[in-house]
């Protein structure tokens, strides 16, 4: 039904009734009805003027599209109804994760589906309500060694369920404040530490309280106290009162060439009985940046510092990111960006201090590589320079090529979440380099396509006998990853 409605809604205008291919009366009436629905949906205030209940929490491109279904059902403006479905085929060879050794190094190919329904009440009123359900599942994942966890599968669950209160012109100073209470997803800052996952098949969500106060687009302050939702692949997700996440985040846009973010994030995770897996962190950080503009240099600098305890030992870690970019005023508006990331690793795993940076609830695809079945690199024990070229050859099109060189920050610590580690450090730090190609085409806000390919030239780290012994057969060979996806929203 979704496919049929969307296909008609995106079709060209109905053919001339005088042509030899004039549709039957029923088909003609249906095409006219769909055309009317499309025009009404694109003109309705529900997309542009009526703010969605989670617009303060999340990036708008992830939640805003023309609500064709809502318009077809003649629902009032103060409601929100939308459906979304994404289908993606993924495949990669020469797996490297220690947990995949049982698969004997076979190529892993899967089809991942992510379906959502959202229903909201309140429109632009001060009190609003939102329910968003999500079903994430994967097919062709039953062979030994196939990758599967709660980042790919989370069937029939509640992604968001909250009420909100919005007040404008607070203290008669033009201030706006919002309160959200319930289950929610969040995009914070550049999304390196807190993000509503876009590429991944499942999404981080939280139960609790969020508050923000702002003055237009000049500045914003956010504070929250949350329990991270514990995902389960087949049962309903739950919260756990032994895991708390809280923080404050301030954004200043007073100067376009020197925009500032500053934040504090706290985590107390004591869900498991084994005290060595407990995490109690305080993360302090800041971000300076200038948005890209034609014929201008742009930049972004972010640094984060973590202190606390990891299990029974002290924790001290840090992360740093640098972007330098330039947008050329040429056909296709090319933008060239140079990246550098450093995330600390544990120098001496056998001492009384842990130094591996914890990326908390951040997203990675926009900066590193595709996640989902792939995703070898994360913001821990990492040292990586690289560059990226982005072009827009036509409206709705974005093409990117990215090249990065990957090293471990510390040779004796784990390589990301792969399970690979050489406690002696003799394997070195060279993880290799990759070429990442991506093409995105958005026909409009309701239909888009995404295709990508990565070739990972593995480094000398994977030639070490100590590392080879932990991987599936062939894991030291270069890996190729490919995906193609389509997303439909009505």
**Helix/sheet category:** mainly beta
Number of helices: 5
Strand content: 35-45%
**Looking at CATH, which topology would you report?**
Porin
List the SSEs and their pairings.
Layout (H helix, E strand, L loop, with lengths): L1 H8 L15 H19 L1 H4 L19 H5 L6 E14 L15 E14 L5 E13 L14 E17 L4 E10 L21 E10 L3 E10 L14 E10 L6 E11 L9 E12 L6 E14 L2 E15 L7 E9 L9 E2 L27 E10 L5 E11 L22 E15 L2 E12 L6 H4 L10 E11 L1
Description of the molecule:
With 490 residues, this protein is mostly beta strands. It has a single domain (88-108, 157-489), classed as Porin (Beta Barrel), CATH 2.40.160. The protein contains 5 helices and 19 strands. The protein has an 18-stranded antiparallel β-barrel. The N and C termini lie close together (11 Å).
Keywords:
18-stranded antiparallel β-barrel; Porin; disordered N terminus; 19 strands; mainly beta; 490 residues
Short description:
The protein has one domain (88-108, 157-489): Porin, CATH 2.40.160.100. The chain contains five helices and 19 strands.
